[in-house]
Structures are given as structure tokens and as C-alpha cells.
Write a structure and sequence with these properties.
The complex is a heterodimer of chains A (about 130) and B (about 140). In chain A, about 30% of the residues lie in helices and about 20% in strands. Chain A has helices at about 15, 20-30, 70-80, 90-95, 115-120; strands spanning about 1-5, 35-40, 60, 60-65, 85, 105-110, 120-125. Chain A has a five-stranded parallel β-sheet. Chain A has a two-stranded antiparallel ribbon with strand order 3-4. The mean pLDDT of chain A is about 95. Chain B has helices at about 20-35, 65-70, 75-85, 100-105, 120-125, and strands spanning about 5-10, 35-40, 90-95, 115, 130-135. Chain B has one domain (about 5-135): Hypothetical Protein Ychn, Chain: A. Chain B has a five-stranded parallel β-sheet with strand order 4-3-2-1-5, with helices on both faces. Classes of the chains: A alpha/beta (about 130), B alpha/beta (about 140). The interface of A and B includes residues 22 and 125 of A.
Chain lengths: ~130, ~140
């Protein structure tokens, strides 16, 4: 069974979780044997931008030592054999250029979305 | 007799925050009334849906006492759904994501709820006729 995880809601408690919960879940189910693709769309295309740095958060005497690094988590997900797609129209709306992005992503247009959905047995829209 | 369907629901929203919760519970209610095998993977805030320490409260704005207000408790709804599943020849297997439970201190859940992981979700989804994901927006 091949599943496509669509991630649209971005930065959902990423500071508290120190990751994106659906990118994390994708790692976990991949580890359990899932055949998986991930599509970043909407605001979640920003996860593809390299050089983000959420370090330095402090509250009083508490310091966050492991801030989220979602671009890195996506790179490591791809290294596990998961194809990560990113919607080109959503990148364009946000002024994100290919040079701004981590490598290895599959750029797809809205026009290509239907065949992409059809190529998966299940689509989980998070 | 044909085998009844197996449906999986992945829920994310915490109780009392979103209309998604009532919608999900209503869909599960329909499925258990039909005797389906229903499996729920509660992820993130949804692990608090069966939290056993939920308590009713009075509502001064409504001018009602605790008893009169009879506030909906999701833990009770889930207990009723588990019972209804049994009565209708089906099952309701509710799995709380263990790490999500830990970070929320939500370990006290009602009877019939078990601790699991995303691997359980994947196994449930593989064996199901279909899976509905209701994520937090």
C-alpha cells in the first residue's frame, strides 16, 4: 500500500515539538515499513527553504538546546527513500526560488496533482 | 455473511478546541452502529479525548448546576462508543500515541484505550478498508 502524506498546515507546534509532527510521523511509519510519499503544499512549502534557524529560544533560565530543523528532517526522510514533492505554484506565491531550497525535492504543478494522487493507494491530508 | 468493514480514523485535535472532534466522534458513532471494526489512532492533542480525569463543571452563564449542565465529556462519549461497538457486533480499538501521552501527562485514560505508536497506525491502516485522517488546522 502506497500512501501520500499531504502536509499543508505549517509550523504547527514545531517549537514545542522540536520538529513537524507529520514529517516526524512520516519517519516513524517509514521505519515501520510504509511505502510513502510526502507532498508539501500551501504554507508548508516553506519547509523546503534552506538555512532556517530557530535556535536561541529562551524562557527565563530555560534554553532550547534542540530547536526544530525541519529542512534537515526532510533531507533525512528523502535519504530513507521517501519522495518529497513540493507544489510549484505555492512556491511562486511565496517568492521561493529553486536556489533557496534544499536539494532532492520533486517539484510538481497543480496540473500534475491528480496523477500524483492517482499513483497512491491512500492519501492522508494532514 | 460478508465481513464488516474495517475503518481507521487518525485524529489530532485536542478536546474542546475544534468542531473536528464532534464530527469525528459522529462518524465513529455511525460506524460502530453498523458493526464495523473501527480503529482510532489518537495523535498529539487527541490523546486527551479519553483522558480519565475530565470532569463536569457548572455553567454560571447558563445558570445551571453541574447536574443541570450535564457537560459533554469526550471520555464518556468514547466509553459509550466502545460499548456500542460491542453491542452491535463490532469493535472500537482506540490507540493513543504513547509519546504524545507522555509529553502531555495524559497517561490516565479510560478502560479500553491502549498505548501505541505510529507503527500501530501503519499496521491498522494496512489492514483497513480505508483510513480517514482529520488533522489539526
Amino acid at each position: 500500500m502506497k500512501v501520500l502524506n499531504i502536509i499543508e498546515t505549517a509550523y504547527r507546534a514545531t517549537i514545542e515539538e522540536q520538529d513537524d509532527t507529520i514529517v516526524w510521523l512520516s519517519h516513524a511509519v517509514r521505519g515501520a515499513g510504509a511505502e510513502l510519499g510526502v507532498l508539501l503544499r500551501g504554507n508548508a512549502v516553506s519547509y523546503a527553504v534552506k538555512g532556517q534557524n530557530a535556535a536561541g529560544l529562551t524562557f527565563g533560565g530555560w534554553r532550547q538546546t534542540q530547536p526544530p530543523d525541519i529542512a534537515h528532517d526532510i533531507v533525512s526522510l528523502m535519504a530513507k527513500g521517501v519522495t518529497v514533492y513540493v507544489m510549484t505554484e505555492d512556491l511562486a506565491k511565496r517568492g521561493i526560488e529553486p536556489t533557496d531550497m534544499i536539494g532532492g525535492l520533486e517539484r510538481i504543478s497543480r496540473e500534475s496533482l491528480v496523477p500524483l494522487l492517482a499513483a497512491h493507494d491512500r492519501v492522508w491530508y494532514w | 455473511m460478508a465481513q464488516e468493514k474495517t475503518l481507521v480514523f487518525a485524529l489530532m485535535d485536542a478536546p474542546y478546541e475544534s468542531a473536528n472532534t464532534a464530527t469525528a466522534l459522529r462518524l465513529i458513532d455511525i460506524a460502530v452502529r453498523r458493526g464495523y471494526a473501527v480503529k482510532v489512532f489518537a495523535y498529539e492533542g487527541a490523546v486527551l479525548l479519553p483522558f480519565s480525569r475530565q470532569q463536569r463543571h457548572p455553567n454560571a452563564i447558563h445558570g445551571r448546576s453541574v447536574e443541570e449542565e450535564n457537560h459533554l465529556l469526550t471520555r464518556e462519549v468514547i466509553a459509550f462508543l466502545i460499548a456500542a461497538a460491542k453491542q452491535n457486533g463490532g469493535t472500537l480499538d482506540w490507540v493513543n500515541c504513547g509519546l504524545c501521552v507522555d509529553e502531555r501527562g495524559a497517561g490516565e485514560a479510560i478502560e479500553g484505550v491502549r498505548r501505541g505508536s505510529p507503527a500501530d497506525f501503519w499496521q491498522m491502516a494496512q489492514a483497513a478498508d480505508n483510513t480517514l485522517v482529520i488533522g489539526t488546522r
